[in-house]
Amino acid sequence: MSKVPYDDREDLEKLRSQWKKIDGIVERQKEWSAAIVRAATAAEIAANIAIRKRFESESEFSPEFVDSLLIWANGIEGKFSRLIIPAERDEARKKALGTLKKRAERLNKKRNAIVHRGAFATKREMRELVDLAREIVGALVTPWEPTFRLGGKKLTKAKSSKATKLVRPKQAKATKQKS
Q1: DSSP symbols for 36-71
Q2: Which among 19, 64, 67, 84 would be 20 to 30 A from 7, CA to CA?
């Protein structure tokens, strides 16, 4: 486990921390709603990673400016609508990202019901939405971090959507790996 305070961690480490919490919740078989909130948080962190990597590879914007854009975009829906999809030049990828955004809206809707209205989730909902979050995370992160894998296992037998099999944008330069 990381000794670095959560707020000081890189996004990939924050994503791994969220997923470790989800795995613990699933293992204890309690608090299905909490697992969904963590899954939605992981999906939003994945969106942050995709946005940061895109700006790192294609712009001279400072990390502070990119941070301000992430705050301005406000949530996963805003990040897709205001930053991820508009930045994409490839029409096939743009369409796949639009489909992924619609799938993310389902996760975000349940997250908002839990957080803002005190709704509860069933085990079945949790399994479906955690697997959906896994799909979203993979689609957003692996084009930029090809070796990245989440821990744990899939919770349902449902197949991943073909629309979420995204590849790195052709125009993006490779980003520097930290040693």
Answers
A1: HHHHHHHHHHHHHHHHHHHHHHH----HHHHHHHHH
A2: 84
